[in-house]
Amino acid sequence: MKIATSLILLLATAFAFASFPGLLTKQSRDWQFVQSVGGMKVSVDEGKVLTVDCDVSGLRKVTVKPTMINSGLAVGDVRHRRAGDRIQLTLTTRLIGEGATTTPGPLDLSKYPAGIYTVEYRDPDGALHEIGKVTLSDPKGPER
User: Is residue 85 in a domain?
Assistant: First the structure.
């Protein structure tokens, strides 16, 4: 009985501090979805900050003309991982809600070593699609 009560309290707390609709609808998206909402491109700002340009609303062309419009979807997050000299990204979406946007925020890649990387989109099934190349550099310190 104590275990059941503890479990109920834990779940209630998790739901209270999460966006309930987003919690239930978060979904990893494949490359076909990304292309249908206008595509994706990447660039690097400030040495190791990756900017991912994509708009899940489908209201603007990033690399291809959108073929789908989504009024109720927002970006959940963009997951990233390094595999040698490749950076693999996967987009997740959720229902739009308070504080949600249809475009992803910048990704901090400061834990990755400086170098030239091929950026790929990784589908939930593991299929890879090349997006482009970026160069990560160590941030410059103050000049002496």
Answer: yes
Task: Tell whether 144 is covered by a domain.
Answer: no
Rg (CA), the chain: 18
- In the chain, how many domains are there? 1
**Ranges of H-type helices in the chain:** 2-16, 20-25, 31-36
Q: List the pLDDT tens digit at each of the 144 positions of the chain.
A: 666 555 455 444 444 444 444 445 789 999 999 999 999 999 998 889 999 999 999 999 999 999 999 999 999 999 999 999 999 999 999 999 888 999 999 999 999 999 999 999 999 999 999 999 999 998 664 443
Q: Pick from 48, 34, 47: which is nearest to 104 by CA?
A: 34
For residue 39, give every residue at least 6 positions away whose Cβ sits within 8 Å of its Cβ, in sequence order, or none: 54, 61, 62, 63, 64
> What is the pairing mode between strands 115-122 and 128-136?
antiparallel
Domain ranges, residue 124: 20-136
Instruction: Tell whether pTM > 0.85.
Output: no
- In order of 14, 86, 89, the CA distances from 120 in angstroms are 33, 7, 6
Among 19, 42, 3, smallest CA distance to 130 is for 42
